[in-house]
């Protein structure tokens, strides 16, 4: 009985390790993450994103300024 | 647009760009790391459909109760929606080149999306070809309803009736392939919300710019009369 349980356990463990192996066989950028400086790429993308969003805020302000300018002009002409 | 919505959009997008690039994703053959493109490619289409939906609502409102402001909103939502669609198309083509083998596959969803984009391009051609402002607004509002009604089957129905390389085709709605993976949803849904908010933000800017333009034209008209 003990032998059966241990052999069953062994089988399950083997299957588990096999499936784990099968999973890691799929090529992913694991190396990039450990020593490949992926964080540099993330930082660069974030700089671009931050830049574009800042630009969006600046445009927002510019449009507001133009609206105010036009409102002033409207008042002065009328 | 409320400032807190803009901040929310920014926070979500920063989270999406960090999480989308660094968090764990399912290990799948062929797709490999390109599975992360889902976080950036699909939200473009969600953004496009949402913006087109808002646009058609404004078009219907315009037909019910015509006003320049409603027409302005309808055009600009369609305009920014088209930009999202073009970005979705380009990102999809690049992804397809590595996942499916070539940039253009004649995949039903790809073709449908291309036709939908052309239908919306025709909306702007129609607007450009009518001189009278009121006629332009009314005609394009009617056309917008037809364009939206054409887009829905082209993108959501026809690809599901045939076999398609896109996930969720052949009768399965949505992302069945990723259903088991809640990790991806944690990044995907914030990405969708973030990009939709950015789309609305850009649209409000364009609507205001158009408003300024109209006011300047009005001032010039007053001067000449």
From TrEMBL, chain A:
Pfam families, per database record: CcmD_alt (PF20077)
Signal peptide annotation: 1-22
Name this protein carries in UniProt: CcmD family protein
Residues passing through the membrane, by range: 38-58
Keywords annotated in UniProt: Membrane, Signal, Transmembrane, Transmembrane helix
Automatic annotation (TrEMBL), chain B:
UniProt KW keywords: Cytochrome c-type biogenesis, Membrane, Transmembrane, Transmembrane helix
Pfam family, one: Cytochrom_C_asm
Gene Ontology biological-process annotations: cytochrome complex assembly
InterPro entries the UniProt entry points to: Cyt_c_assembly, Cyt_c_biogenesis_CcmC, Cyt_c_biogenesis_CcsA/CcmC
Membrane topology: Multi-pass membrane protein
Role according to the record: Required for the export of heme to the periplasm for the biogenesis of c-type cytochromes.
Family from the record: Belongs to the CcmC/CycZ/HelC family.
Protein name: Heme exporter protein C
